[in-house]
Specification:
Strand content: 15-25%
Distance between the termini: 54 Å
Number of domains: 2
CATH architecture of the largest domain: Beta Barrel
Oligomer: single chain
Helix content: 10-25%
Shape: globular
Largest sheet: 9 strands, antiparallel
CATH topology of the largest domain: Lipocalin
Strand order of the largest sheet: 4-3-2-1-9-8-7-6-5
CATH class of the largest domain: Mainly Beta
Structural class: alpha+beta
CATH superfamily of the largest domain: Calycin beta-barrel core domain
Number of strands: 9
Radius of gyration: 24 Å
C-alpha cells in the first residue's frame, strides 16, 4: 500500500499529527493520484548522505512530497467545512444559572480599565451595560440576548437572536470589502471554521473591534456552550465570558 513520505524537517511540525495517522493516510491515498505517495528510500529524508541520488531527482522528489503535503492540508480543511456538525443547529435558550453574568463581567473590565462604575447596593438593573452606539450592537446581541437559532445555508450559517436580529456567518472564505464611497454603510462581518466538533467564529463589528466565539455541544447534545472573547474598539481590556444554552425541542407539525 502506498503512503505519504514527508521530509524529516517537515515531520517535526505539530500540524503533521493530523495527517500521519494510519486511518487518515489510507483515506488520503484513496483520494489523490498514487504518484504523490510513492515511498522514496532516499537519504534526503533521513538526514544521511544525499550523493546516492542525482541532484535533480532529489529536488523533484522533494517538490513532489511538498505538493502532497499541501494537498493533504487542503483536503482536511475542505472536509471540515463541508461536514458541519448538525448538533449545533436548532433553537436554543439561555441557561442563566450556568452562564456568566454579562453585567458583572463588563463591570469588572471597566474597573480594570480605571473607569468609575456606580455600585447598586440592593437590586441592580438587568442588562445595565447594554446599549450604546449602533456599531456595537453585535456585542450586545451575542452577550445579552436570551435566544439563539442556528441554521445552515449555502456557504454560510444564519444566527438569529432576540427580536429576529439576523447575523450571517460566512464559511466560504470571503472577506469584507468596502468601497471608498460606502464607508458609512459598513456592516458587521462574521466568518467561521470548524476545528473538530467545535465551531470557531470571528466577528468584526462596525466599530473596528472584534469578538472570538467558540461553540461546543455538551450534555449529549442538549446544551450549547459558547466561550466568548469580546474586545470592543476603545476598550483596553477584553471581556471574557461563557454562555450556556439549553436546546429547545422543535414543535411537532400537524
Amino acid at each position: 500500500m502506498f503512503y505519504l513520505v514527508i521530509p524529516s524537517w517537515i515531520q517535526n511540525m505539530n500540524v503533521l499529527a493530523l495527517i500521519t495517522q494510519p486511518s487518515i493516510k489510507e483515506r488520503l491515498c484513496s483520494r489523490y493520484p498514487f504518484w504523490l505517495f510513492i515511498p522514496i528510500k532516499s537519504t534526503l529524508f533521513s538526514g544521511g548522505n544525499s550523493l546516492n541520488m542525482p541532484q535533480k531527482r532529489l529536488i523533484k522528489a522533494e517538490i513532489r512530497h511538498l505538493m502532497a503535503f499541501f494537498l493533504c492540508i487542503g483536503l482536511l480543511s475542505a472536509q471540515a467545512q463541508e461536514n458541519p456538525s448538525p448538533a449545533h443547529f436548532g433553537h436554543w435558550i439561555i441557561n442563566a444559572e450556568l452562564s456568566d453574568n454579562t453585567d458583572k463581567k463588563v463591570e469588572r473590565v471597566l474597573r480594570d480599565m480605571g473607569e468609575k462604575v456606580s455600585r447598586c447596593w440592593l437590586r441592580c438593573e438587568e442588562d445595565r451595560f447594554r446599549g450604546g452606539p449602533a456599531e456595537q450592537e453585535l456585542y450586545d446581541r451575542i452577550s445579552y440576548d436570551k435566544t439563539l437559532t442556528m441554521e445552515y445555508g449555502d456557504g454560510q450559517y444564519l444566527f438569529t437572536y432576540d427580536d429576529n436580529y439576523q447575523r450571517p456567518v460566512y464559511t466560504d472564505g470571503r472577506s469584507r470589502s468596502v468601497s471608498l464611497t460606502g464607508l458609512d454603510t459598513v456592516k458587521d462581518f462574521s466568518f467561521a471554521h470548524w476545528e473538530g466538533t467545535a465551531l470557531l467564529v470571528e466577528a468584526r463589528p462596525r466599530d473596528g473591534g472584534f469578538a472570538n466565539e467558540t461553540y461546543r455541544i455538551t450534555d449529549a447534545g442538549n446544551r450549547l456552550r459558547v466561550e466568548m472573547y469580546i474586545h470592543p474598539e476603545g476598550f483596553t481590556e477584553a471581556i471574557e465570558l461563557v454562555r450556556v444554552y439549553d436546546r429547545v425541542a422543535d414543535k411537532p407539525t400537524d
